[in-house]
Fold:
Amino acid sequence: MTDMPPPGIVLGRLDALSNPGAFPSDYEPLPILLVRKGEAAFAYVNVCPHQGRPLCLPSGRTLVSEGAFIVCPFHGASFAIETGACTGGPAGKAGLKPVPVEVRDGQIITI
Structure:
């Protein structure tokens, strides 16, 4: 898998995401899922650790349950929005790989 993006890369805009919600970034070298909860943004490599499938559907739609969990649409593994830790389903203890980001002037930027 490609290395993490360098600091300063704009991955998306916070206001483009539902609250709470998630959508894949357009960043080409690495599939990244952007996640919003309130005014905070989180980013993860867009791969479920269970079977290596994307965490979103081909349309980009991503399942967010109870405003707190990202749910893999293929096998139902769930992950905490803030940490990427697996909270249930077939991924066991395998969590999501975080991409360090911050929100600056409404943009989600790698740090």
